[in-house]
Amino acid sequence: MRISYKAGVPVLVALSIVVSGCSAGSNKTMTETDPPPISYVNENVTLDTEVEETSNEVVVESTMRELYLVDQNGLVTPQALSLPKSEGVAKQALEYLVQDGPVSQILPNGFRAVLPSGTEIYGVNIKDGVAIADFSEQFKEYHPEDELKILQSITWTLTQFESVETVKIRINGYDQDVMPVNGTPIGEGFSRSNGINMESTNIVDLSNSKSVTLYFLAQNGDNVYYVPVTRRVNANEEQLTAVVSQLLAGPSSFSTLLTDFRYGVQLLEEPRYANGVVTVNFNEAVLNHMDGTAISDEVLNLLVLSLTEQSGVEKVAIEVNGDSKVLLETGEFLSEPVSRPLKVNSGKY
């Protein structure tokens, strides 16, 4: 799919972009005429699902892993890929983040690994929620602009495992207090709370702001995928309300990211949280599919991925004008709260 540019705003052929007056970002939207993007909400793939492929009577066992690679826009993005089954799953996942390493055989178009070529992973020690990853000297040989991408790629790849909350770095067995090129402090470890794909912000008083992680859409040719970004918001705003409000504000006007929320969507009340489930109630403008009668897979995915990134949220329930009977683009009704998929961006590229 050809990408053209007009007046500094990225315009994707077969995608319409609507710029709103919101200060936080722009509502760049997709239309119903687009080729159907890949949906990831109702995946049933478990973390250690084995796939058997037979060739000349040789059975190869594999498992799906989420690797955080860098896309053509320089954004750290999850890609669920099939790796050979291994006992040292954390170490293996990091090995697949090395440039010119084994990931080269399965690297999706438009993506690159971010760890310097030749980097060896000596081991990953996991204890009490902390993963200590030990790298060879080649780890130091990266461009300064890749430092945060490397930290985010390592951290978000390792924290896909339930036993890992924080990541620490060693080089040749020595603990690192700062990253070797730009000196980013890492002595206390890195976690998802440090953010990913941090947006530049106009907020001056950082002490009175907090971070929220949101998911928007990106496109590479005919392939549509989900990208997490971290944005600063007012510290006094209720967390779940802030997430939904920022989703509706759309991606930054300076980014190439897209949204499937149409202009005019409103949250009718603050999200309600109980027992791991958050319920969000919108006006009818959220129904952007089938002549305004159904909610698109993309809108549902953006909500579920963004809200379940927040602590304690396991499922998302959708209401329209207080009615929980919401039609999906498949023609079925949303019958129960939706869980976060175990894998994000598991489409074939």
From TrEMBL:
SMART domains: Germane (SM00909). InterPro entries: GerMN. Keywords: Signal. The keyword Hydrolase does not apply. Residues 1-24 form the signal peptide. Residues 90-180, 240-329 form the GerMN domain. The keyword Signal applies. Pfam families: Germane. This is Sporulation protein.
